[in-house]
């Protein structure tokens, strides 16, 4: 996008939707925040009345029947006021790869700043920075944190179609038209916005897919603020904020996350959530970032577990004006697309399945006992998009094969399917396992069922020898 397009400007806040830029790949448009689109009582200059910036692929807009099944919600860093450049770079590239993205600005930033919100701003309203407000009034940071939390949750509810205002007669029907019922929502935050996004993601992780953090300012105490303002002022701000928060803190997840992620008091909830959902979170740091070092991640990284991190060589903190960043932005967009696609896919090893099967066999020996391992396998098979019935393939040693077959159950059959789909056994190994099973005196009905399942499953996972599988069972059934 052209630099001129990326400049923040005064816009008509009486209009709900405005096209900013369009080409043959995507459309960039502004839409009033859900908080104001259905609330006529808000004044034109109210700070709740602002524009979301959407980047929508043409292929979705050109087909009335097509709806988006993926979206990435982005937010900005501290003191970004005049330019959307970084988000235009990311949004345009994600749109060209088929993913909608939307920028939800932090309070008092970009088109939410008084410079662009007030019709006749004073000198102070023209020149003030958001950082000046929070440095002088540390309590405002926590207030803005809660405000942003509510705003992003409201946007999430609109995208998911969970609000009453998403009706044909309302402007919020825009979301119903644009997004599918099962849309995957991911978050992406930059700098200070990354801390906000990580808290929001961990609080609502059941409704979300993945979280991306660019030069993420987790633990404000570790931020080297000298590039922006006096470090002593920043340290004083942190001390006042911590004291203010301790007086307001409640024993709720929102505050525990603020305490752990933003203030750096790494309590158990933060560590446990980061460990449980760590493979859905990706940190990207600049190797030359002098404000936020990737070393800070060591403080929140779950012990003996880790977190996803990539350090981009030669990149500094201010990505929008970094020439080196322009060399990496396409790769980052590809990485985001790939990570988003695979964030919730299960990874299951042979060892894991062996343990589950062995303990599951013991549990099944007790009649009438519900086997929790069968439930686990069923859920994982569903995550992999598979029909939970197939053969117990070569998962355990041949010496244990006879015993395994004697106690075979639907959960045993699921294990084989998962192994095949995750390419942990070959087609030949599967066929060998079939031969062993057919020697155990399986009934004709059982063989026919296994043959049908195998043929169908092997087509789905694109393995070879489908014909051989079917012929083998036909011979056995004659």
Please, could you describe this protein's structure?
Helix 3 packs across helix 14, helix 9 runs antiparallel to helix 11 and helix 15 packs antiparallel against helix 18. Strands 1-2-3-5-4-6-7-8-9 form a nine-stranded mixed beta sheet. It folds into two domains: 326 residues, Alpha/Beta hydrolase fold, catalytic domain (Rossmann fold, 3-Layer(aba) Sandwich); 128 residues, no CATH class. It is globular. About 18% of the residues have low confidence. 47% of the residues lie in helices and 12% in strands. It is built from 21 helices and nine strands. The termini are far apart. It has 478 residues and is α/β, with parallel strands linked by helices. InterPro entries: AB_hydrolase_fold.
Main beta sheet? 9 strands, mixed
Indicate the percent of residues in helices: 40-55%
Going across the biggest sheet, name each strand in turn: 1-2-3-5-4-6-7-8-9
Rg from Cα:
27 Å
The CATH homology group name of the largest domain: Alpha/Beta hydrolase fold, catalytic domain
- Overall mean pLDDT: 79
Order of helices and strands: EEHEHEHEHHHHHEHEHHHEHEHHHHHHHH
Uncertain residue segments? 348-374, 376-415, 417-425, 459-467
| Total beta strand runs | 9
Q: What share of residues are in beta strands?
A: 5-15%
| CATH architectural arrangement of the largest domain | 3-Layer(aba) Sandwich
**What gap, in angstroms, lies between the N and C termini?**
68 Å
Tell me, briefly, the overall form: globular
Q: Give the class-level CATH name of the largest domain.
A: Alpha Beta
By CATH, the topology of the largest domain is: Rossmann fold
| Total helical elements | 21
| Class based on secondary structure composition and strand pairing | alpha/beta
Number of domains: 2
């Amino acid at each position: 996008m052209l630099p001129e397009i990326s400049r923040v400007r005064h816009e008509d806040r009486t209009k709900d939707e405005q096209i900013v830029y369009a080409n043959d790949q995507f459309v960039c448009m502004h839409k009033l925040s859900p908080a104001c689109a259905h609330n006529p009582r808000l004044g034109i200059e109210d700070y709740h009345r602002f524009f979301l910036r959407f980047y929508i692929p043409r292929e979705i807009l050109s087909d009335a029947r097509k709806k988006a099944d993926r979206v990435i919600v982005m937010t900005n860093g501290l003191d970004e006021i005049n330019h959307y450049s970084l988000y235009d770079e990311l949004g345009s590239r994600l749109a060209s790869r088929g993913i909608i993205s939307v920028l939800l600005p932090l309070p008092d930033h970009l088109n939410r700043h008084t410079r662009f919100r007030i019709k006749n701003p004073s000198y102070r309203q023209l020149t003030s920075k958001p950082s000046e407000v929070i440095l002088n009034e540390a309590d405002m940071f926590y207030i803005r944190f809660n405000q942003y939390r509510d705003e992003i949750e409201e946007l999430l509810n609109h995208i998911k179609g969970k609000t009453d205002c998403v009706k044909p007669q309302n402007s919020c029907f825009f979301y119903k038209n644009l997004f599918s019922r099962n849309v995957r929502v991911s978050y992406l935050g930059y700098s200070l916005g990354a801390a906000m996004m990580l808290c929001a993601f961990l609080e609502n992780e059941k409704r979300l897919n993945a979280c991306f953090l660019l030069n993420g300012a987790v633990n404000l105490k570790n931020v080297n603020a000298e590039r922006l303002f006096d470090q002593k002022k920043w340290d004083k701000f942190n001390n006042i904020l911590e004291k203010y928060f301790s007086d307001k803190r409640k024993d709720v997840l929102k505050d525990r996350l603020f305490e752990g992620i933003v203030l750096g008091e790494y309590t158990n909830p933060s560590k446990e959530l980061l460990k449980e959902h760590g493979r859905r979170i990706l940190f990207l740091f600049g190797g030359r970032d002098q404000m936020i070092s990737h070393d800070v991640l060591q403080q929140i990284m779950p012990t003996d577990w880790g977190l996803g991190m990539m350090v981009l060589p030669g990149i500094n903190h201010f990505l929008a004006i970094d020439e080196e960043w322009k060399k990496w932005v396409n790769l980052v967009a590809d990485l985001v697309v790939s990570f988003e696609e695979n964030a919730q896919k299960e990874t299951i090893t042979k060892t894991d399945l062996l343990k589950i099967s062995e303990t599951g066999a013991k549990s099944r020996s007790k009649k009438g006992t519900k086997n929790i391992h069968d439930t686990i396998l069923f859920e994982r098979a569903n995550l992999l998009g598979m029909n939970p019935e197939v053969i117990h393939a070569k998962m355990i040693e041949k010496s244990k094969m006879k015993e395994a077959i004697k106690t075979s159950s639907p959960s045993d059959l699921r294990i084989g399917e998962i192994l095949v789909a995750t390419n942990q056994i070959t087609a030949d190994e599967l066929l060998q396992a079939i031969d062993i099973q057919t020697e155990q005196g399986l009934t004709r009905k059982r063989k026919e069922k296994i043959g049908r399942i195998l043929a169908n499953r092997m087509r789905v996972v694109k393995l070879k020898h489908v014909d051989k599988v079917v012929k083998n069972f036909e011979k056995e059934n004659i």
